[in-house]
Amino acid sequence: MSKKIIIVILLILGTIFLVTFKNINFKNKKVDLSKIKIDIDIDKIDQLIYEVAYIDSKNKLKTEKSKKDILIDKRQKIVSLLNQYPNFKNYFLRITNDNEKEIIDQLIKLFNDPYQKKILVESKRIFGNLNNLKNEIIQAFKYIKFYFPNFKVPKIFIFSTGYANDIFIHKDFIVIDLSYFFGKASEFGPTMPEYLIKDYYPDKVIVKIILLLSREFNSYDINDSTLMGDMVYYGKAYLFAKHMLPTVNYQNMFNYNSQNIKFLKKNKSLIWEYFINNKLLYSKNKEIKSQFIDEAPFTNQFGKKSSSKIGRWVGLDIVKCFMKNNDLTLKELMQIKDFQYIFTKSKYTIN
Known about the structure:
- By secondary structure, this protein is mainly alpha-helical.
- It contains 17 helices and four strands.
- The chain has a four-stranded mixed β-sheet with strand order 1-2-4-3, sandwiched between helices.
- Strand 3 and strand 4 form a beta hairpin.
- The longest helix has 20 residues, at 3-22.
- It starts with a helix and ends in a 5-residue tail after the last helix.
């Protein structure tokens, strides 16, 4: 065999290899977390505040003087404690020189409420020493580090009071109120409609954290206020969450039951035709968008046996089609602001 023929064969084989490699979508690449080291500390700041704010029965206030002295002492101890956590103090509690005394007094009142003591006890009963939650967070953060190496691991605070956000996300820290996630069986669980409480069980904490964190990576066009824009935005968020939580299925993330999934599969064409025939994809009407994006027991347009958040589900379907038909990394997807580009390049079809 001549050298020219050998060279031609090698070039052909090389081309085949390069084309084959190029067509391997990044999402199918094996994820290796073995070299990614992450550790986090979870500070139960609710328990720490309780320990310094609580006034036990031995210190019942008998006189105005003793009351004043004890409150001054409690204020000083709480301020001293919070000064060790400046981000929590400044950006979550939003304490300033002007409102410090007012907020500290509110904390003293809150943590001397018998109900608050029960919340802390229930939190301990349901979540134990927090090791399971800690391991879930560490694992998810490792995935984020794999896909986004510049990710800065935030500090984690537990502040279970039922009076603030369920989860508060700041670029440097996360505050989790576990009392929201006790579930329906707990007498101290959140009071809310059945369709909402599905989102507030212990196993939902990590899902909600990751979906909220996706905002840090999810680029979007601030001038795009269309339903399509919202659909694709949420589609990107759920795909992001799936990469960080590979063992959690989409049904769990959406809080769908088997009936919901069956409805979506059976009525895929009906749903899409409804969007097209009613010219909804580019609607900017907030009320219309809310009907297909927000939490609800069902979607009014499709009856009481339908699924909620249909717009988000279709948006995820569009984004999955986009990734299937385009050779992009997750990071590149999340950086795309033009939702119309994603929709067009997805070649989305209801077949």
